[in-house]
Amino acid sequence: MKIAIAQLNYHIGNFEGNLQKMLNATTTAKEQGADIVVFGELAVTGYPPQDFLEFDDFIQRSEAVVNSLAKAATDIAIVVGAPCRNPVVEGKDLYNSAYFLAEGTIQQVVHKTLLPTYDIFDEYRYFEPASEFKVVDYKGSKIALTVCEDIWNVGNENPLYKICPLDELMPQNPDFVLNLSASPFSFTHAENRIHVLKANVERYGKPMFYVNHVGAQTEIIFDGGSLVMSPDGTVHDELPYFEECIRTYALESVQKGGVKHVQPKEKMTLIHDALVTGVRDYFGKLGLKKAILGLSGGIDSAVVAVLAQRALGAENVRVLLMPSQFSSDHSINDARELAENLNVQYDLIQIEDVYKSYESLLQPHFAGTSFNVAEENIQARIRGMLLMAMSNKFGHILLNTSNKSEAAVGYGTLYGDMAGGLSVIADLYKTEVFELSRYMNKEGEVIPENIITKPPSAELRPDQFDSDSLPDYDILDGVLYQYIEKRQGPKELIAMGYDEKLVHRILKMVNRNEFKRAQVAPILRVSSKAFGMGRRIPIVGKYLN
Amino acid sequence: MKIAIAQLNYHIGNFEGNLQKMLNATTTAKEQGADIVVFGELAVTGYPPQDFLEFDDFIQRSEAVVNSLAKAATDIAIVVGAPCRNPVVEGKDLYNSAYFLAEGTIQQVVHKTLLPTYDIFDEYRYFEPASEFKVVDYKGSKIALTVCEDIWNVGNENPLYKICPLDELMPQNPDFVLNLSASPFSFTHAENRIHVLKANVERYGKPMFYVNHVGAQTEIIFDGGSLVMSPDGTVHDELPYFEECIRTYALESVQKGGVKHVQPKEKMTLIHDALVTGVRDYFGKLGLKKAILGLSGGIDSAVVAVLAQRALGAENVRVLLMPSQFSSDHSINDARELAENLNVQYDLIQIEDVYKSYESLLQPHFAGTSFNVAEENIQARIRGMLLMAMSNKFGHILLNTSNKSEAAVGYGTLYGDMAGGLSVIADLYKTEVFELSRYMNKEGEVIPENIITKPPSAELRPDQFDSDSLPDYDILDGVLYQYIEKRQGPKELIAMGYDEKLVHRILKMVNRNEFKRAQVAPILRVSSKAFGMGRRIPIVGKYLN
């Protein structure tokens, strides 16, 4: 028995594209001598299809793809994830299912039991959980078919579910386990995944084939890293990260165990490659090519420029340098040097004249007030507006350069530096942005050293530094991480040794700025808790603020 | 046995405020001679508390409020909704519960069984469903305690759930049913609610007391309209819409039936009052007072200005008239007349000079291109920027004036007319905005007639009209309603008689503009399907576009 894993980059709702990709992979798997080829969870629709699932037309198109794949399932079995209608009138209308296709027809449909409904996941919004458990018989083998989360309820201290699908299947004595996944990237996920598969293999003693998606769907990135685990708990093979791959394995050799093909999991390498994938697929899947961003001379826009250039190519990236009367010379020079290092088109646009024309227009209304955040924001918004004007005129998509620390505390201007179609690094704390910049310079200076070493400043008034308004980033990021990723409250944070006043000040800033984060572009997710669809906080809430 | 219904306006996370409000209501209920006072679902935390529920500190504060209420439950029983920890390690960590408090302690805790997880609801994200069913014994009565959705699985053609909590409780022969709700407003909801309660009463023959929230939490509005239903299927009483109210009922007289107190449910009255509530509570709950908006002379901003003035008072509303070289005289005159009718402060700011300074700044880059959407958007963004500058300087919150039709097809400028802290009418199709304007003028002209009768125009280039770029609003809104509210696909729409090309064009516009809607302010929800948290569509999706 030979099993092919097809780790592919699907596109939500692109039924023709997904079908063609899977037909090609089926041909490849056949060439590799496979008896079965396995695709990912909801591979037919792409993941997550979200509320498209509520359209009957969408489900019909998905069913048509499943039928086409069934027809192609000759001399090979195809296992593919797709929604399946629930024939029972009570309960949700759909199942999240794995279709077993062979001999030109649908042989069996197995439904997902454990429906993740937390963080970015909303599966119980759409799907009814499975209530029956039956292995698939194929060519004399018994196969335990599972979908993603179904294998994640093993070895947790606080399991989310009361049921364990493989416990239900084991009495039927399957020969091996297939798991169709769409398991989103975070920088610790590849490690966690191996632990969970190990826990399963240790409990059940069966070979496991775990098939993941690769590529990004708006903010959600899939890293691939599909796994084949031997019954002795060793990783028989781990597929590459961030690229499509089709590989075939002989069951007998997986049974034997003793091989260990594991890739390094260095945090910054993973994050770097994930973000490049995220930018590339956002553009690719929307049929776009060209990006624009403002280069301030600061670290955030520098890092985004490098990512954009690597994702889209230098010829598709354009940057604007938009100094005001408050910009320092070094900012302009640093930005120019970076643009030249990256070999991207750059233009210098002085914003002082436009600023003055706003000033004179507002003078009758602002008379008697002093320079404050209103005037600072005007500068940031002029820049946002110029970038959008170029975007509208020439079709470049504006990349947003906010980081997670400033997004958390609201240190940014709505419709100014918070503008953009995709937020590239807003799931990286400022300290992580610095780490990433150093990683980028590891094999030769790309980002001018001065950009990395100078103290961060928004340069919206004379001699302004981030440290005037914010705690040191080391401390700020520590508190933010505990609050956002770890859901620690004020008491826990103070018990960790953080200053009481500072804790209250930071949590207040985070909660009061929910309204700003409600209006930002999708944020490429690389942590276990990113701002956006995976973190839902009421705007009018009066908690800790 | 006398039962008091307390229909209150809670505030998410405002534990002290919610406690004080419930203690006051308990005093009132005692004065009315009540044996029991009933509050709403999750009244302690406010609804929906969303991911605040993931913070242990948040749950502790909620528990403290429940304990304080228990101490106040002397000479009266208090029934209140709050989260309850799940002591079992498997499953979700919390229940969504109704606490029965009497004689100074927690007597019983009943958990919600049916957890809505669709549209704006995410309850399965947080809560474990109940698996036990036990009536509450109090002063010789048996009480069936239910939470919101628990009574909504009766009489549906396509029930979402496999269980019916009252079916489980009836063998224990309860004397009456209490239902603690947080049931969001839509303009058909008050009607639906009566149907569902009637279906329950017809099935079980027991008096029902349904207690709703009132007031808005960001985009979600609660209309109140709490109900007392007699076993004969008549509405014994319906509490007022959009105001707090505490009323006490003798069980015997409810048993008798034959009374019918029902309020009129005229669509535009309900929508008008809901939107006024939505604006008022957004400001009130955030501790804000003053609003600003741009008056274009068009219908959308006119309607929002009226709502703002009614919600916040004329003294708290400021408007800007910002004509460009493309604005018609009548626009300025109409806007001025409206501002004078409303008695709100208005200022005229000509944007042409700023526009020209952008033009000259961009001239080297735009050379050789012709006037297009880029130049149109610059004007819209100058206006957004001026409004935000006033907002930042004086603390007025910008109200967004987009309607649902333009939000649907992307006929608006990001960071321009799509800016704002709260989107007031973006759940009203253009045709409904006209309806609402006529409703506002019913008792005397508030909105100048010319604003209502002239053809809609964005006035961003000479002689521009909406009809140049969009289908007639009557047709557009019909297609949008079927697609958005009713999830009809292209085949169904064409079968309804809509032109095939037009259908494809409209659906494409809707799906391609998901990226714009991802960045807008929260939208006050008045329909059964609003843009925002209740409608989740992938941005990179390639479906119907």
From TrEMBL, chains A, B:
It catalyses: deamido-NAD(+) + L-glutamine + ATP + H2O = L-glutamate + AMP + diphosphate + NAD(+) + H(+). ATP binds at G294, L295, S296, G297, G298, I299, D300, S301, T401. CDD domains: GAT_Gln-NAD-synth (cd07570), NAD_synthase (cd00553). It is an enzyme of class 6 (ligase). L-glutamine binds at Y118, S183. Keywords: ATP-binding, Glutamine amidotransferase, Ligase, NAD, Nucleotide-binding, Transferase. One of its GO terms (molecular function) is NAD+ synthase activity. One of its GO terms (cellular component) is cytoplasm. Its EC number is 6.3.5.1. NCBIfam families: nadE, PRK13981.1. In the C-terminal section; belongs to the NAD synthetase family. This is Glutamine-dependent NAD(+) synthetase. It comes from uncultured Aureispira sp. The lineage of its organism: Bacteria, Pseudomonadati, Bacteroidota, Saprospiria, Saprospirales. The gene is nadE.
